[in-house]
Amino acid sequence: MALLLCLVCLTAALAQGCLHCHSNFSKKFSFYRQHVNFKSWWVGDIPVSGALLTDWSDDTMKELHLAIPAEITREKLDQVATAVYQMMDQLYQGKMYFPGYFPNELRNIFREQVHLIQNAIIESRIDCQHHCGIFQYETISCNNCTDSHVACFGYNCESSQQWESAVQGLLSYINNWHKQDTSMSLVSPALRCLEPPHLANLTLEDAAECLKQH
């Protein structure tokens, strides 16, 4: 089990969607929208497919349904984008399709893309378990495509000394975070259980409960 503290630094902007943050998104989806007219024998498929492509980014954010912030590393975003563009390019290589086929395939690719993004974001958080104490990694905010970072707390400590150091580092991190708001005390009552006098007999369950209370 890893307790994740999602402390994300962002600037306000309009929602864009994860794949939209990729450098080739505009070029790729511009091509897809421009050539949608040639992909179905039935004229009714054209506006449906066009709407799917136009709303791709906003619909992605609506479908993610994550309990954690949508922050993805550049490496994983590249992997997702490569997979999605590959599926889309293969779909566009075909000639005109029979009625209903093309928009259905677009929906399938869209759903697969959502799963890829969800997995990529969650995998990065799970990787936190391989660290001891505070760990940070650089990400991109799927909400607004700005650079951000995620700070998490990993429980993979090999000794009691490492564990004590990790918890002290966590307390220091939270104290520094609280200093940004002068209306808050340096250590909230809920976090006093992480102060040095209480660390000797502190268990993982105790630490988790302490942080949940905070």
TrEMBL record:
Keyword entries, A-Z: Signal
Alphabetized InterPro entries for the sequence: IZUMO, Izumo_fusion
Presence of the UniProt keyword Signal in the record: yes
Keyword Transcription regulation: no
A Gene Ontology cellular-component term: nucleus
UniProt signal peptide: 1-15
Pfam entry (one): IZUMO
The family this protein is said to belong to: Belongs to the Izumo family.
Protein name: IZUMO family member 4
Source species: Pongo abelii (Sumatran orangutan)
